[in-house]
Structure formats: C-alpha cells, structure tokens
Amino acid sequence: LVEIYMRGYEGMREYGGEGEGYAKRYLRWCWNKAKDGFFVAKAGEEIVGFIVCDRDWYSRYEGRIVGAIHEFVVDKKFQGHGIGHMLMGKCLEYLGKYNDRIELWVGEKNYNAMRFYEEYLFRRANRSGIWVRMVRDLRKDDKGSQQL
Ligand code: ACO
C-alpha cells in the first residue's frame, strides 16, 4: 500500500507526504482508525488502489461526528480506468449506512481529484493552508450511485 501511495501521488509530493516513512505511519494510522472502512481494489491478485472511509470522525468544522474519507489512491498506471469509481461506490454504500455527511480534504491544486469529487456531489466548504475541505450530504442508507 505504501508503494501504491507513493506512486499514486507522483508529481504531487506536497499532498502525498514527505516520503515512505510518513506514508507508512499515515497508513498505519488509517488502518487503526478505520479498519471496517478500509477497502482495497484488486486486479487479479494485485492490489491496485484503496479508499479509507471512517464512519466515526469528529469534524471540528461541523462540531459533530461525520463520515470521512481519509485516503483515496489508485496506483499510477491503473488511474483513469474506472477503479476510483468502484472504490467510491463502495465507500458511499458503506458510509451511507452510518452517516448523513461526509468530509474529505484535498490539495488545492489537485484538480483531477476535485473534479472527481464534484461528480459525486461533493462541494467545496473550507480551506486551511494548501488544503480544501469538501463535503457531501447523504441520506442514511443512501447507496451513493442511486442518488446520482
Ligand atoms: N488520470 C485520469 N483520469 C483522472 C485522473 C487521472 N490521474 N484523476 C482523475 N481523473 C478523472 C477522469 O477525468 C475521470 O472522469 P470521468 O469519470 O468523467 O471519466 C475520472 O476522474 C477517473 O475515474 P476513475 O478512473 O474511476 O478514477 P481513478 O481510478 O483514476 O481514481 C483517483 C481517481 C483516486 C483520484 C486517482 O486518480 C488517484 O489516485 N489520484 C492520485 C491520488 C489522489 O489525488 N487522491 C485523492 C486525494 S484526496 C483524499 O485522499 C481524500
């Protein structure tokens, strides 16, 4: 997963941490925080992407618990082939069971990812430094794609 993370963020190092040590610590933190919502995509036996969906995230911007997407990466050479859509579908299905709102933070110049999120009805809500907070409302039991 560390390798996928490093390759996925190639060319965007400012948003993908400071290196493998950081990636390893961060992904371990993700695993400990949101095991149930840590989904991987496979091509055959190979893991090619993952999404980390946390159903129990205290948002200080909302002042309450919301769903959060902590990380979402598809390996560089597999990007643009629909794997991200599959992972996002799974994420919305999962968080839709528990949360009525999802937040995530994305790099301010990560235009591809922001466009992707906007397709899924996320909207820009706040900024903090180089990060943009995006939110999406969900009905409980929303299956995500059904609402699109
Ligand atoms: N290459 C091609 N298309 C891209 C790319 C890319 N690098 N990034 C986004 N897109 C757009 C396409 O225009 C396409 O739009 P369409 O649905 O209208 O055709 C769509 O997004 C691509 O859909 P998928 O192929 O399903 O998405 P993909 O498998 O590439 O996954 C993701 C999307 C996760 C954003 C991936 O490109 C990636 O890993 N990017 C680098 C890491 C990153 O920026 N992650 C998000 C950070 S924010 C966070 O983690 C909370």
3D structure, described in words:
The chain is of the alpha+beta class. The protein has a single domain, classed as Gcn5-related N-acetyltransferase (GNAT) (Aminopeptidase). It is built from 4 helices and 6 strands; from the N terminus they run ααβββαβαββ. It has helices spanning 2-8, 20-33, 83-95, 111-119, and strands spanning 38-43, 46-59, 64-74, 101-107, 123-128, 131-137. The chain has a 6-stranded mixed β-sheet, sandwiched between helices. Strand 1 (38-43) and strand 2 (46-59) form a beta hairpin. Helix 1 (2-8) crosses helix 2 (20-33). The longest helix has 14 residues, at 20-33. The radius of gyration is 14 Å and the shape is globular. The termini are far apart. Residues 8-9, 69, 71-74, 79-85, 104-106, 110, 112-113, 115-116 line the site of acetyl coenzyme *A (ACO).
Write the layout of secondary structure elements.
Elements: H1 2-8, H2 20-33, E1 38-43, E2 46-59, E3 64-74, H3 83-95, E4 101-107, H4 111-119, E5 123-128, E6 131-137
Parallel strand pairs: 3-4
Antiparallel strand pairs: 1-2, 2-3, 4-6, 5-6
Helix pairs in contact: 1-2
Bound molecules: acetyl coenzyme *A (ACO).
Acetyl coenzyme *A is lined by residues 8-9, 69, 71-74, 79-85, 104-106, 110, 112-113, 115-116.
